[in-house]
Amino acid sequence: MNVFLWGVLPYAAFALLIAGLVWRHRYDRFGWTTRSSQVYESKLLNIASPVFHYGILFVLAGHLIGLFIPASWTQSIGISEHAYHLFSLYGGTVSGVLAVAGIGMLVYRRRTNAPVFRATTANDKLMYVFLLGALLLGMIAKLSDTSGNGYDYRSTIAPWSRSLFTLNPKTELMAGVPVLYHVHAVVGMVLIALVPYTRLVHMFSAPLQYLTRPYVVYRSRDPRQLGPRPDRRGWERTGS
């Protein structure tokens, strides 16, 4: 089971992610969307959506820093393990609270607004369960040991995560990891596998081309043609 969870499941989740993205792009391009329900209700959405998106972006950034930046790198620039732990604890908690609060408002909106609820699919409900579960489990695992430097996941989970990219997973590192971190990691991997089959697929279609597209050039009007003008009979000449 240890080999399956930490040596097989990560690659299975990644394979389902890639296969799902290819399939969705090839056969369901019109479905590659958030299926926005803003037309039904926008007041609460304008609050809940930014709260969730900012929270989840900070959560993802924290995971990338914690898992893929070795402790020796942060120590080399003068950040002690205790300082890193405090930053991770408070920053991760605030980010998690923002994301959970955003999801809570989004779920409340979907449940209390009839048109939005009718537009909610089974995939949406499954996505909310795993997304909320991953966030809550991560926060509980983090807050379960706040004494000292907390659980040192940078010497176990982080090296295991990096070893996946060398195709030589160090499954033995995950043997002594607390159960809460185990469950959090498994739920997170299942969520990664589900991404292409839910509305979360829109994260792979960020409009980055807007950063490099040329400016839209508007032609100026002749000042003599500004303002109201009298009606004219007959055909008007077209400009070249």
TrEMBL record:
It comes from the Bacteria. InterPro entries: Heme-iron_electron_transfer (IPR051936), NarG-like_domain (IPR023234), NarG-like_sf (IPR036197), Nitrate_red_gam (IPR003816). It is a multi-pass membrane protein. Signal peptide: none annotated. The chain crosses the membrane at residues 6-23, 44-69, 89-108, 128-144, 179-197. It is found in: Cell membrane. Residues 2-221 form the NarG-like domain. Its main location: membrane. Keywords: Cell membrane, Electron transport, Heme, Iron, Membrane, Metal-binding, Nitrate assimilation, Oxidoreductase, Transmembrane, Transmembrane helix, Transport. This is Respiratory nitrate reductase subunit gamma. It comes from Streptomyces violaceolatus. The lineage of its organism: Bacteria, Bacillati, Actinomycetota, Actinomycetes, Kitasatosporales. The gene is narI_3.
